[in-house]
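We emphasize that the prediction below concerns an isolated chain of 186 residues; any contacts that depend on oligomerization or on bound cofactors are therefore not represented. The input was used exactly as deposited, without trimming of termini.
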Amino acid sequence: MNREEEVLIYNAQEGNVQSFETLIKKYDRKIMNLLLGMVNSEEDVKDIYQEVFMKAYKSLNKFRYQSEFYTWLFRIAINTAIDFRRKMSRIRKHELIEQRTILDLNTGTVTDPERDTLNKELTKFIQLALDKLSPKQRAVFTLRHNDGLKLLEIAEHLSCSQGTVKKYLFRATQKLQHELRQFYEV
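Result of the prediction step, given as a token string:
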């Protein structure tokens, strides 16, 4: 952590809102991209995004300079997104209905509207498959494939070992492959 960031954090801890806003501006896009990879709805992402920074502001006095500020903020974002997904999972548990479109591929012709419909259905199916992952599996999968982070970086952000990250990534990939095979078998 550089000296300028330490000063901003210290000033924010002392109640300087301008310093906190400067810190937020520094990391807001990264946090937004992380949340977009973990949560389906952009409206939900906006709510979670605000909640992350509210939690960070309220907890700023607990930051002890033992890690990078971004790592601390990233952890708050991950935990907030995981909590949100758990909450939504309970709410939507009985609402999930699988939708599948059966296409007659024997004709050999697929028109653009048919292709669009197939792509929309595949996108929905992929989202349903991602929703079946545990929150940590989804976080690791998203960080690896959407954000392009290396396993070691993911391990640092999630405060776990690289082996644990590999385990989550492997299991997430297996589950997604299994779910997607079902789509193609229709």
